[in-house]
Amino acid sequence: MNVYFSIYYPAKQHTADGVILHNSLSVCFDALLLWRMELRHLRYFLAVAENKGFGKAAAALHVAQPALSRQILDLERELGVRLFDRSRLGVTLTFPGECFFADVQRIFSHLDEAQSRARRAQSGYSGALSIGVVDSLAWHETITQSLQHFQHMCTDVALDVSLLSSPEQLAAIRDGKLAAGFLFDRNPEDETLDGIEVLTTRALLAVPESSPYATRPPERLADLQQDDFIFIQRARNPAYYDHFIHACHVAGLTPRIVQSGTTDSSNLCLVAAGLGLTIVPAEVESRKPRGVVLVPVPDLKLESRMELVWRRDNRLPALENFVRILKEKLLLGSNRTHA
Question: What pLDDT does 117 receive?
């Protein structure tokens, strides 16, 4: 393995008041010195320094002593520095040798850390992972507990969670800006994507608590023909908007949309202000604002499927770990439901 190393030894230093201090290092470099060497030269150097002799170092390295001596001489010639004082009693580091010894120890420490990080990244326990979540269900326990479990298991992975609409997530996943996303209603015919179902949610009608529908829900969607509705603009989420309109038309309702929020959460806030009605996933019941009541309508046949979606060709190990953790969470929840 060939490695490039750089070491700089200042020949002199300037104090704040301009006084020049000469370094006690006998061999000085006036500029940054570059050289090419192999890691074995450094390993041989460490072995000789730590064993304080060529004989013991050669035995520890399982190499012939003459070959080891030549390698150290080559290293000294490459550096232009005498690293060892040699005598019949053994070898000792020179002052430049002691400085080089400390630097080489740091180099190998960094190499060990790099090797460990690479192995952890390969197994999905290091690196980075970006996940998207729709705002309306970002609090759902399946999502929050999966993220929490992943963070606990993969402490060296930088987890980045973004609140984005389903179309925004799909675009970011295709562009490689997101690894995966919790989103609704992806096109099942898109073979470039893969995913696992997290939940299927049915829709409820959200009304102000002052509305007569709060205590006596409508029997049919068609009964709401004269009421004002709040919903997102189609441009923000075409699939969701079209599903909503289709479900209304099937039930004989052409909704009169007078206000447009950006998310289910913002739509609910407008409902709480008394500006109209909206349709939301049943799961938002525990998170709706004060002043809003969710009621069922028998012919409101609108379901949405949330999935964790990712690109089929994404082989990111951290993503594979997250998918595994989510599957375990979903299986555990299913077992509890059937218990």
Answer: 72
Give the residue-averaged pLDDT of 146-170.
Answer: 92
DSSP at 41 = H
Tell me what pLDDT residue 88 has.
Answer: 82
- The structure's pTM equals 0.64
Task: Please give the CATH topology (third level) of the domain spanning 2-121.
Answer: Arc Repressor Mutant, subunit A (1.10.10)
Kindly tell me the sign of the dihedral angle through the C-alpha atoms of 319, 324, 325, 331: positive
Burial 268-283 (b: 16+ CB within 10 A, else e): bbbbbeebbbbbbbeb
> Which of these CATH numbers, 3.40.190.290, 3.40.50.300, 3.40.50.970, 3.40.190.10, describes 128-339?
3.40.190.290
193: amino acid identity, one letter: L
Q: What is the pLDDT of residue 247?
A: 94
Name 337's Cβ contacts closer than 8 Å, sequence gap at least 6.
none
Mean pLDDT calculated for residue range 54-63: 90
Calculate the alpha carbon distances from 240 to 8, 38, 82, 104, 247 in Å. 62, 61, 75, 61, 11
Report the C-alpha gap between 119 and 111 in whole angstroms: 12
Least confident of 86-90, 124-128, 228-232, 288-292: 124-128
User: In DSSP terms, which residues pair with 204 in a beta bridge?
Assistant: 280
Contact 160, 147 (CB under 8 A): no
Does residue 32 carry a pLDDT above 80? no
User: How far is it, in rounded angstroms, from Cα 141 to Cα 163?
Assistant: 16
Domain definitions of the chain by residue range: 2-121, 128-339
Give CA angle at 237 (232, 240), nearest 5°. Answer: 85
